[in-house]
Amino acid sequence: MQTPAPFEYERATSLAGAIAALKAAGAEARVIAGGHSLLPMMKLRLASPERLIDINDLESDLAYIREQQGEIRIGALTRHAELLDSELLAEHFPVFRDAEEVIADPVVRNRGTIGGSLCQADPGEDLSAVCAALKAHVVLQGPSGERIVAMREFQLGPYVTVVAPDEILTEVRIRTSPGAGSAYEKVERRAGDFAIGAAAAALEIEGGTIAAAGVALSALAPTTIEITRAEELLRGARPSEELFEQAGGIASEDCAPMADGRGPVDYKRHLAGVLTKRALRRAAARALQTEA
Amino acid sequence: MSVQITVNINGEDVTREEEPRKLLVHFIRETPGLTGTHWGCDTSNCGACVVLMDGKPVKSCTVLAAMAQGHQIRTVESLERDGRLDPVQQGFHELHALQCGFCTPGMMMTARALLDANPDPSEAEIRTAISGGICRCTGYKNIVAAIRWAAEHPATVEQEA
Amino acid sequence: MAVTTENLPSGEQERPIGFGRLKRKEDARFIRGKGNYLDDIRLPGMLHAAILRSPYAHAKINSIDTSAALAHPNVAAVITAKDLETLGLAWMPTISYDTQAVLAGDKVRFQGQEVACVIATDEYSARDALALIEVDYDPLPAVVNARKALDPDAPLIRDDKQGQLDNLASPTWEAGDEEAADRVFAEADVVVEQDMIYPRCHPAPLETCGMIADFNPQTGQLDIYNGNQAPHAHRTVYAHVAGLAEHMIRIRCNDIGGGFGNKVPVYPGYVCAIAGSIVAGRPVKWIEDRSENLMSTGFARDYVMHGAICAKDGRITGLKVDVIADHGAFDSTAQPTKFPAGFFHICCGSYALEAAHVKVKAVYTNKAPGGVAYRCSFRITEAVYLVERMVGALAMEMGVDPIELRMRSFIAPEQFPYETTTGWTFDSGDYANTMRVAMEIAGYDELRREQAEKRARGELMGIGVAFFTEGVGAGPRKHMDILGLSMNDGADLRIHPSGKAVVSLSCQTQGQGHETTFAQIVAEELGIPPEDVEVRHGDTDKSPYGLGTYGSRSTPVSGGAVAIVSRKVRDKARLIAATMLETRPEDLAWEKGRWYVKGDPEQGVLIEQIAARAYSGEPLPEGYEGGLDAQVIYDPPNLTYPYGAYIAVVDIDPETAAVKVRRFIAVDDCGVRINPMIVDGQIHGGIAEGIGIALMEVITFDEEGNCLNGSFMDYLIPTALECPDFELGATVTPCPHHPLGAKGVGESPNVGTPPAIVAAVIDALHETHGVTHIDMPCTPARVWAAMQGRPEPPQ
């Protein structure tokens, strides 16, 4: 069986302690939470951190889903299984349940965390697209305090984020609003696989008009990609099948997929359109409470 | 390099000097008598290594032994208690839910956790619950049936002499 | 507590004495986590091996520097080709009379090829040391596409072989009558041609391959622990390879976590473990990781095929096939010596053809060697896929229902025994009956109505049909051998004084339930409870010689051996019974478990009483040697020919092209079913693997020869969510020449499932999108491309 290279290991007992440990260890340290992205990379020896800071004991500080100040706030150590099961989340942002039902498998979902998923910044990862469509913000804690970053600015490239070596992503914040609906659509080669392509859509519909819109794609560009032209098209328009079709067309044009074992570029562009349209259709139905 | 790691496995503390990189699946398997937990891939796709950690199924090839310190681990060897088979074990036998037996411990532990959380699962719920495991022999049909059997026979089964 | 079958409750089960649904004896240890698989074994002083593999598909090796690895404190030895040369182990024979480098010395010929082996105190250190070995390579252009392997400018892969000037691995092999086929085609009303590929896939048993070798320099004894499907044949190979005396080699296969053909060949890692133990003087364990398994050990299929089929007067009359077989860098394809394309020429299928002609040639490419039968009897999977796809294409061209065309063209029951146009003698069958049973279970006509309704609504639903005849149970000594070893199997049965029995087998279970099934055969034949029969296998010191388990040969060959050895014991028992009953043997009649006097059924003796007598001081028949044992070698007179009718129902998302298998109906005729529960289980597993092959399992390479499916993240195996609740049916046509009327079943579902699913996908898309063919795997991207009118074979 593949085994990781040697490293030093410490368990953080507090968030401040974890940040201090990261600062002390320098660039060769990594935070480990669920470990389901990091450990396979270490076994393949594609990652060889010298030190792991285990933050799993910080559950009481970092594992929660709560409503606060007009936002849903999700602690970074919240596991996929908890995101899937959360009624609060399903009520406000059903896109999470859609996505969580198709993220990896139920056993992996018992370990993997939202913070780990976002920080891994795998272009095929699902929650990054979900959070991007929801216009979420993330809280980063470092030695000199916290900063809040919009999802739009979070990823710098494939597997690269703005999180500094001595920072920890601690929380995801999403503004709630009445009239919101959201959905996630994914096509995969097999249950549990990363997406061939996936689309997250979030709409706020006020008085029959789309007041706010978010569309983001997974696995259809080198990073998670927001389809801003589609969002602009949607804002201020009345929801309709034609509109969603048009938004899908924009997604097909604006995505930037690469050919790989999951499919060629033309198929992925086609998927971008289909999945964007479907996600918008469901998001609208949920916002209007007309979902079948 | 080595550190002392204590993991509670099946109710007993197991303490050894190990490198921090020691994977939980290896830590378990190197404990005398506990080779029932298997491994079949390197990428947490196959589920042969599933054990329960604080009652929830996890893939022990993707957990460090050091990370399991302070947690309760349950392996396949804990299913039979005082000579009584767990209904899941019994169901697997009754309905021919195993052939080569290699995925069986992981499947059974996943099933045990499912039934603990949901004593009356539907076929769809069972299929979803075991979808993190690969069985190359059974096509899953009898595994699904065996877990239903276990749901319908919840009391631990009296063994014949 | 001790793990015994007696600890298991019986519940409501019936307990047949003989054939019937008997729960498995082997479950007792497996459900308790007390199986004994290779990695569960830890010998005192055992070292661990890890293998450095080539990152290139084709490259010259300039130098290998192992000094840093050797300096690692936990490393005992590092072995390279140079070291093996001094032991005479640098190259090994393959099962196809080719040679394969154990460790590459001159150059590497596929990505993942074995280059060096580290022996260390533990697995983690051994793997650490791999990173310390420096190999200087000069990359060479790689041959990846089998169709281009024989191009004049193709780089020569096997420059190690004297006289090898191109990449031809084996010359064109033919079956059937080309002239006759040409005539039939010339007279035909309809001719259809189709290119297709059966892509490379991998058996990927859940337990990977490995070995523990324990060489004792004092005694010269080599003890091997190794999960393989043919332990006796492996022992003979090691005797040849290592120059060790065969009687000083003992191979023990304990529990095996699946094989499916992957554990048939001898792999370089095994030879490295043996060499490591000889060098280190201690036991050495080597177990490959999943990537090593997928990238270097026996793949399956990889047949590039062109078919032509024709019909006259509404019936199928002829078939022509031209195949390029991709054997990878070393020819280690598994088949009997006289059959370089295995049993591919059974591709005339289940049909009464007037003529057929088959041509197969094999090429070397810079890919992993293999060509093992992934749950398939020697290329029958490829053959059935070819003919069933061709029949489907022909039906489409003729505008005839695919079942109707098959019904018109089947070999009729009264035609058996039937000599096929390519030389097989099918012994029995009633194909139309089995097809009808499948149609009834499926509700075929209703499905066609539903399909039409859905099509009208823009929904895509497909119904696919496949009918197969397999030839399994290789095989007759006069026709079949592997490496000169006849494909026969032994059985050794001992009845103890208490009437309890031990039967030893040469076949090797990998999960098929031999401990139960073979006990039931003895139970059926002798009338003692199967619980009283212990089945021994997997230890070359304790079992008779034989060629192991693959090609669905356990029941056809070893099952025949066990039936006959039981009858031998029964005949001996008759002699003793006659003495006990003070009558003549010919005056006795048999009923299950007992000989009695004809005409006086009260006068009889149980097999247990006879056994007690056999070992007692009481008088025995004159000339009788005592005891109640027997031994046989079974040489089957012919293959057995199981067949089946499969129907798949799929739904395809019209926009995303994702395929969902909604229903799967399998009606198998495998003859007499010894344990119907185990038979059904075999079929379930094979269908799941067939679904995998049809929809997702594939090994592909990029232009440089990099393997793109080297882990379970990219070699996708169906989960419970991709498999429907299979619907099984059965017909029973006993095999006329098998002692039990059984035919073997393990591989049938893997043979029949892929063509049924592909046919269903095409059926869903034909009317609306004009699709007439699609190659496997039917992934969403590939199905979508077919819907756009540009289907492409997988690379």
How would you characterize the overall build of this protein?
The complex is a heterotrimer of chains A (292), B (161) and C (795). Chain A is of the alpha+beta class and 292 residues long. Helix content of chain A is 35%, strand content 27%. Chain A contains twelve helices and 14 strands. In chain A, the strands form four sheets. Chain A has a five-stranded antiparallel sheet with strand order 4-5-10-6-7. Chain A is globular. Chain A starts with 7 loop residues before the first strand and ends in a 5-residue tail after the last helix. In chain A, 59% of the residues are buried. With 161 residues, chain B is α+β, with helices and mostly antiparallel strands. Chain B is 32% helix and 16% strand. Chain B has six helices and five strands; from the N terminus they run E-E-H-E-E-H-E-H-H-H-H. The N and C termini of chain B lie far apart (50 Å). The mean pLDDT of chain B is 95. With 795 residues, chain C is of the alpha+beta class. Chain C has three domains: 39-140 and 208-256 and 263-296, Alpha-Beta Complex (Aldehyde Oxidoreductase, domain 3), CATH 3.90.1170.50; 299-474 and 638-787, 2-Layer Sandwich (Aldehyde Oxidoreductase, domain 4), CATH 3.30.365; 489-634, Aldehyde Oxidoreductase, domain 4. In chain C, the strands form ten sheets. A seven-stranded mixed sheet of chain C has the order 3-7-1-14-11-12-13. A five-stranded mixed sheet of chain C has the order 9-18-17-16-10, with helices on both faces. Chain C has a four-stranded mixed sheet with strand order 22-32-33-34, with helices on both faces. In chain C, strand 12 (221-226), helix 6 (231-242) and strand 13 form a beta-alpha-beta unit. In chain C, helix 13 packs parallel to helix 14 (554-580). Chain C starts with 26 loop residues before the first helix and ends in an 8-residue tail after the last helix. The model of chain C is unreliable at 1-13 (pLDDT under 50).
